[in-house]
Each structure stands twice: as C-alpha cells, then as structure tokens.
Design brief:
The complex is a heterodimer of chains A (196) and B (101). With 196 residues, chain A is mainly alpha-helical. Chain A has 9 helices and no strands. Chain B has 4 helices and no strands. Classes of the chains: A mainly alpha (196), B mainly alpha (101). At the A-B interface, helix 2, helix 3, helix 5, helix 6 and helix 9 of A face helix 1 and helix 2 of B.
C-alpha cells in the first residue's frame, strides 16, 4: 500500500535498478493504490483501468533510471500517471454530446433538482451526481477537464496541479477559466432545453 | 451567475459528487504485479540483448570491411611506405636535398 510506512522504498528502488524482479513486483503492489486512484479519476472512455495502470507502471520502469530523487518517488509516479491519462484523453478526438435523453432517471432528477431549486444534492444521490459530473466534464477539452476535476472535485490547489502536470500557474488558471466558461454555457443551454 | 458561487448548480452538483465514496478496492488484482514486473524486466533484458547482438555483428562486419579494403588496396599501401625516388628537375626536392646536405 502507498501509505505503508514500513515499506523500504529506497531499498526496493535500488533492487529494481539491479533488475530484481521480486523487488519490481513489490514496488507495483506498493504503488498500485496511488496509481489506480489517479486512473479512476481521469479514466478516458473505452479504456480499461487495468490496461492504463499497466502502461503507467511500464513507463515508470522504463524511466526509473532518470529518477534523481528531487521529488518523493510517489510524486514522480503520480506525474507519470497524470500525463499518461492526459495523453489518452487527448487521443479521444470526439466528445459525446450531452443530452437529457442519455441520462439515467436518477441522473436526470438530480440535474433537474440542482437547476430548479437551491437545495444541495441528497446524500443518497451522490453516485448519480458523480456520474453526472463525469458526463458534464466529458464536454470539456481534456486539459481543461483535468484542471477543473482537480480543482472542483479533488479540491487540489493550483500549486499541486502545477506539480502534477508540469504546467505553469498561468496556464492552469487559463484552463480553469476556460473550463468554467464552457460549463456555465452548458448549464445555460441545459436550462433552456430543460427536460424537453 | 458565477460558477464558483456555492448556489450555482455546478457547485452543488460537484459537492454532491465529492460525497460519493468509491468502494472499489485499490489493491493490485491477483497476478497484476507479477505480470507487470515480468514484462518490465523482460523488456529491459530484450533491449540489452538486442543491442549486444547487433553490436557483435557490427564489429564482425567492420573487421571484414577492414580486411577487404586492406586486400584491395595492398599495392597502394605498400608503395606509400616505400621510399620515393627523387624526381629530376623537381625544385622542391632539389631544395630539400640541398638544405639537408
């Protein structure tokens, strides 16, 4: 597990560099929770999470010689995971159109509720809200989607997003602004159509 | 209405989505770590062995080319090492000959 304090990461990395397969297996098991959480947050459509996490680990092993220790190893791996997810999201040229008709009954109710009254989403509707947010985020450009997801859902700071993506502060802010503008337009459009 | 306004539908929707707890396990599926580790180590080995094989072959080809070019140009090479006779009437040769004596 990624939060296991007893795991000797430095020792394990040394053994991996000496091409010790058992150490490589231990490293994958140790980092899997971290990687799978990132993959699940930014999983593109029609991509299996296991395939994507395997790709991330393969990149990690290929580049392990380049790791200088300037940042903690899990941060370094997180960055590989995030950039791999962005590459996959960018590869998806087409974004599905958001339509009321494609929503499940529960999702449509939640959307209707947040648009017509001022109440918060009920606790038992959190899954529908989660799915709905995913569908709305699918309307954004991959980079903008990633920024808004990290800011509004994962509640990361701009500095954390910069560290994970390698983008500068202004770029992150511009992408957040662009994403919010697009979402605002989308909500205005949805309000006009409102379950027609 | 601003999207960061807590009353905006997006803010309430994203707050609702944040409450969703993903109950799926985060541990690596059975055999995943073994497969990935084996693949990673095999790729590494394959890359090294491919380089070794090609480097040995390249060295062999280079040696053959060296021998071939030596054989083809044997007379030219042996003449180059032989002492060149003085060409009569060559001013440079006469000058060098005069300065050495």
């Amino acid at each position: 597990m990624a939060d296991d304090q007893s795991f000797d990461l430095a020792g394990c990395l040394d053994r991996v560099r000496q091409r010790d397969q058992a150490a490589a297996r231990e490293l994958v098991e140790h980092l899997h929770p971290l990687v799978i959480r990132i993959v699940r947050s930014h999983l593109p459509r029609r991509v299996a999470e296991e395939d994507l996490s395997q790709e991330i680990f393969m990149k990690m092993f290929t580049r392990i010689g380049q790791y200088q220790g300037a940042v903690p190893f899990p941060h370094w791996v997180s960055r590989i995971a995030v950039t791999t997810c962005i590459d996959h999201l960018r590869a998806q040229k087409r974004r599905p159109e958001f339509r009321w008709a494609d929503l499940s009954e529960n999702e449509a109710e939640v959307l209707d509720s947040v648009m017509t009254n001022e109440n918060d989403v009920a606790a038992n509707d959190s899954f529908a809200a989660h799915e709905l947010v995913g569908k709305l985020l699918d309307q954004l450009k991959p980079d903008d989607r990633l920024v808004i997801q990290m800011l509004d859902l994962e509640q990361k700071t701009i500095a954390e997003i910069c560290a994970l993506t390698g983008w500068n502060t202004s770029l992150v802010k511009v992408r957040a602004f662009r994403a919010r503008r697009k979402l605002r337009k989308l909500f205005e459009e949805l309000k006009r159509k409102e379950r027609s | 209405m601003n999207l960061s306004d807590p009353h905006h539908p997006w803010s309430r929707l994203s707050a609702g989505a944040r409450r969703h707890v993903d109950e799926r396990g985060v541990a690596a599926p059975y055999g995943f770590a073994t497969r990935v580790a084996a693949l990673a180590m095999a790729t590494e080995r394959a890359r090294v062995s491919l380089f070794e094989r090609f480097s040995l072959r390249a060295m062999g080809v280079a040696c053959l080319l060296l021998l071939g070019s030596l054989a083809a140009n044997y007379s030219a090479i042996s003449n180059a090492f032989a002492e060149e006779p003085l060409v009569p009437g060559d001013p440079v040769a006469e000058l060098l000959d005069g300065s050495s004596s």
